[in-house]
Amino acid sequence: MFSILVKSLTTGIVTEMAPFDRPVPFGFPVIDFTRCTMCDACAKACPSGAIQSTAPVAGRRTLALSYGACIQCRECVSACPEQAVSAGTQGEVAAYTRGQLQQSASFDVDPASGACTLRHVEAQPAPSLEEAAARLRARIQGRLGRSLHVRQVDAGSCNGCELEIAAMSNPVYDLERFGIHMVASPRHADVLLVTGPVTRNMEVALRRTYEAAPDPRIVVAVGACGCSGGIFGEGTYAALGGVDRIVPVDVYVPGCPPSPSALLNGLLVAMGKRAARTGAPPPAAAATSTPRT
Amino acid sequence: MSAVASTAAERLGLRDGVIREVRSGELVIDAGAADLPALADAAVAKLGARLLSIFATDERAAHGRFTVQHVWWLPELRTLLRASAGVDPAEPSFPSIATRHPSANWFEREVMDLFGLSPQGHPNPGRVALHDDWPEGVFALRKDFADDTTVGRVAGDLHPFRPVSGEGVFQMPVGPVHAGVIEPGHFRFGVAGEPVLYLQMRLFYVHKGTEKRFERLPWRHGLFLAESISGDTAVGHALAYAHAIERLASIEVPPRARSLRVILLELERLYNHVADIGALATDVAFTVPASQAQSLREGLVRLHQRLFGTRLLRGTVALGGVKTDLADAGRRALQAHLTSLEPEFDHLITSLIDAGTFTDRVDATGVLTHQAARDLGIVGVAARASHVDGDLRRDLPHDAYEGLQFDVPLEDGGDVRARLMVRAREVEQSFRILRQVLDTLPATALCASMPADLPAASSALGWVEAWRGPVLHYVATDERGRLTRVKINDPSFLNWPGVIQAVPGNIVPDFPVINKSFNLSYSGNDR
């Protein structure tokens, strides 16, 4: 016992003051749409369908990247022949809607050569992050002032997200100092921290857990699978998809898996203590892109 | 004709030439379904075979049949043996071996649930993979079942658990949503006061249709799906898949990549073993060592991120090699980390086993006897803690394990302490392995180039001794070289019945620490 006491004293404090805003080597990818030629190499290389290339009308094509489905594998980065896709360093992303995790651009197709030229980068879909944050604050009505009780629900995860959720409680992150406490029952919970993809066999349990939680029962969807079904897809016989297919979601924390920092950030966003960031082009950038006639 | 194939045939009393060696370490025998039980008996009696998998394939379109396949590990001959038998769709059944070989129990029931082939003579032919609200006669892994089919729920009673009755006897339901941050499963304890009389469990809550999903993905993308079979075994499953694909395509992995794969596997073992040891301290409320272990684990995963880009070692394995090199600076950083970790880890273990309050809780708790472990075909850490020897790194070496010096620690107790000590001693061996590999990293390419297409209509096995135990993947292609069947075997599937045996006789409050000492994957089991 004496050696344990000595160990505690000599170890000192390992907790980090503010474990946020750390650049990571495998962040979410960033597409420079001005260099994109719409060759589709990135969309074909993406194993989880996070990059989608579509042709909505004749003479027009769009490329969309959703951080909600991205597993940060960087296959798109190595696939792009134009170096238009780069490995981002942003890993702490959170949003209030699935749409806010998406960025896209439209291209005009030259009928003769088939060459594509950028038409415009889509602005972030409504509601804006500020607007969505205000709505969430109104829903909470200050009830989650300084503490948050969290019930974690694994609704189908591979356990990767659970490992990082558990890591939030380790001495380095020490989530309890932020007033966040993991509780054993949904009846004690302000927030359900739900991982996915929601399986057929967990759907009923997830619904019942949601119904057992008291209002305003904030739901945070975790991970690529929790946000969108991820690599398991949506609507298979066994995996139904993202958490929002079953219960309403207030905050999305994508990543495969999101780091403890990203998860902490997401919980603080759910408390209204931090502003959500998506890494998508801000509306200003979208406005200055060059619309073509 | 290979020597090992002839030896195997001779020892099993079969005609020479019946068993073929399709690749190194992979024997195949085409048997009649009726011959499977006799073959299983002979393999176990004459060659000490251990069952690693039973699975089915649907080859009705190409060959007008299903197959049922047994995969045996023959430790003496240092090879695997796959026995494959055709099953006539008009008579969709096959003989069960579960009465004589209990490790076949869940495998055969899963074949019944997902392919609709019934195991004749199975002692307990109930559902295992399907929940009770799944309709009769719908078989998800058959080829005529589209993976995006929405299957309605059947109304009716909840799962009929076996009644446990008597004066003062209760049934205590736990899960699928648990009190801690763990995966979902349902446990039903029959208790008389504190002591557990009987444990029943219901798994497959996180069945994600992963094997079916492989059939939809291009084989290159399958690697990423493999990383998500069990999040704590990302390297293990990705490597087993990569091995199977590389063996199928006859790709030679460059020596440096093989060494780096050993480093990745051992790092995965380290961070999981350290975290599990900490979790055992947590489960008996011994908080100082628990915190110490969690902070050592955090140090390791941060090192992973610095060296390889990701905390849980995702995105490190490539088909044909590895994705990230370890430069000299990284090699030194890893060596320095090991040097500082080793005394910290020693201190952690000492502070646990020197504390009577800790050993009181783990000694003689959750005993899995040697005999039960053998009979049930338990593998990996849990088997070695009950003195059942076996480790594919030594017995069927993959990657660069051949020629490395290391021991395979065994313990006798079969209790929580034995499973803890196997982990502790394996960590020491991992230090030893990592140092050897780091000192002799060959200077070659990182990745062999893969062909544009896989060979058509062929199949291969890939295996790895991951931190929890052996991981085995079976990969088969169709006539156009696309994935047509991937069977995933996580050691958890073989080991869950061990938990059922180890818990009765203990008190309910010891269940968490017993369960954690096995630390089996739900996702790897359910897929």
Please explain how this structure is put together.
- The complex is a heterodimer of chains A (293) and B (527).
- A 5-stranded parallel beta sheet of chain A has the order 8-7-9-11-13, with helices on both faces. In chain A, strands 2-3-5-6 form a 4-stranded antiparallel beta sheet. A two-stranded antiparallel sheet of chain A has the order 1-4.
- In chain A, 26% of the residues lie in helices and 19% in strands.
- Chain A folds into 2 domains: 30-93 and 101-124 and 280-288, Alpha-Beta Plaits, CATH 3.30.70; 129-270, Rossmann fold (3-Layer(aba) Sandwich).
- In chain A, β2 and β3 form a beta hairpin.
- Chain A has helices spanning 2-11, 41-45, 75-79, 129-140, 160-167, 200-212, 223-228, 260-270, 283-288; strands spanning 30-31, 51-54, 60-66, 85-86, 102-109, 116-121, 148-154, 180-182, 191-195, 198-199, 218-222, 239-241, 251-253.
- The longest helix of chain A is centred in the C-terminal third of the chain and has 13 residues, at 200-212.
- Chain A starts with a helix and ends in a 5-residue tail after the last helix.
- With 527 residues, chain B is α+β, with helices and mostly antiparallel strands.
- Chain B folds into 2 domains: 3-120, Beta Polymerase, domain 2 (2-Layer Sandwich), CATH 3.30.460; 210-320 and 328-526, Cytochrome-c3 Hydrogenase, chain B (Orthogonal Bundle).
- In chain B, 41% of the residues lie in helices and 18% in strands.
- Chain B contains 18 helices and 15 strands.
- In chain B, the strands form 5 sheets. Chain B has a 5-stranded mixed beta sheet with strand order 1-2-5-4-3. A 3-stranded antiparallel beta sheet of chain B has the order 8-9-10, with no helix packed on it. In chain B, strands 13-14-15 form a 3-stranded antiparallel beta sheet.
- In chain B, α8 runs antiparallel to α17 and α15 runs parallel beside α17 (511-518).
- The longest helix of chain B is centred in the middle third of the chain and has 29 residues, at 255-283.
- Chain B is globular, with a radius of gyration of 23 Å.
- At the A-B interface, α1, β7, α5 and α6 of A face α5, α6, α9 and α10 of B.
